[in-house]
Amino acid sequence: MSAALSISARPAPRGFQGILDHVNKHHLWCFPLDCGAAGKLPLVKWKEFQDRPPSPAEVADWCRRFPDAGAAIPTGPATGIFVVDADSAEAIEWLELRGVPVTVLVRTRKGLHYYFQYPLAIRVNNSAGALALGVDIRGAGGMAVAAGTRNGDFTYHYESGHALGEVAIAYSPNWLIEWLSQQESKRQVTAQPIRPQEFDGRLRAWARKIIGDELAELATAGEGCRNDRLSRAAFKLGQLAGGGEADISELRAALHEVADSWPDERAKSDDTIARCLEAGFAHPRQRPRPPFKRHSPWAHTPGLAGEYDGEVDLDG
């Protein structure tokens, strides 16, 4: 989907009605969003608007109830866009060095949102830091905060000369399409799924070491890469909880204990912990269990010849 070029384009006005009118003009839609200390909170149940625009009656209701709200634009195949979120100066530099075409750019508090046309033959999923440190992707099932939305003393705004209507939403660069294709190929490799398991109250040494390593590395994360490191740690720990290897409530508390030392990032950290723990829980990970190896049919009998190479539980 391309926005029509227009020399008279102006930055999106503030207030939900103004933002809505602006994005509608360029064949997109949005829903009301509260963007403040508590994080980015949709003010309506928004999942259905990933697939369809709101009706005139829904829009009128939102404008009446939330006149001063910000807005978020759904990303994915229905709106025809996805967004690459560079969350730091280093992340922006990384993208620019790889090569990025002229496209719509929205300035965030710490970085930039790059708008791209959604590819027809590839599913673009949401990801946090998978492409590069500090680079997130908002694809199918995601959302991007719209220009004109206020967050405390900051307002999301277009980079000069890069507003909807001033430039077209570009196609993805070839290197990004190649990476997205690789991710799609990985998802198509099927394996026997592991169903989430309940924690039995016993934290084994294998899981304890993973948790300790992840929390220790997270505690040393520097400014500009904390959210990326938090997303990875929360996902990995969520996998352990899903595999029944640890208690998810205790893992959540441990992550918050580290993230609470970053007061300026608390709202974002809360969202990352909740989202990535849940994503990891849906992809369980369990302690590996090596198979038996026997050189003799009598190897299972104590005192007889043979070799036993099964699992020995040293966790007590």
Give the gist of this structure.
By secondary structure, the protein is α+β, with helices and mostly antiparallel strands.
Report the major sheet.
6 strands, antiparallel
Low-confidence stretches: 1-10, 291-316
User: Given the C-alpha coordinates, what overall shape results?
Assistant: globular
Percent strand equals 15-25%
What is the helix/strand order? HEEHEEHEEEEEEEEHHHHH
Rg over CA atoms, rounded to whole Å, is 24 Å
Q: Give, in spatial order, the strands making up the sheet with the most strands.
A: 7-8-4-6-5-12
CATH topology of the largest domain: the name is: Prim-pol fold
Give the helix tally: 8
The termini sit apart by: 60 Å
The CATH class of the largest domain is identified as Alpha Beta
Number of domains: 2
Based on the coordinates given, report the CATH architecture of the largest domain. 2-Layer Sandwich
Measured as a percent range, the helix fraction is 25-40%
Element layout with pairings:
Blueprint: H1 16-25, E1 31-36, E2 39-42, H2 56-65, E3 70-75, E4 81-86, H3 89-98, E5 105-107, E6 112-117, E7 127-132, E8 135-138, E9 142-145, E10 150-151, E11 154-155, E12 157-158, H4 174-187, H5 205-219, H6 226-242, H7 248-259, H8 266-281
Antiparallel strand pairs: 1-2, 1-3, 3-9, 4-6, 4-8, 5-6, 5-12, 7-8, 10-11
Helix pairs in contact: 5-6, 5-7, 6-7, 6-8, 7-8
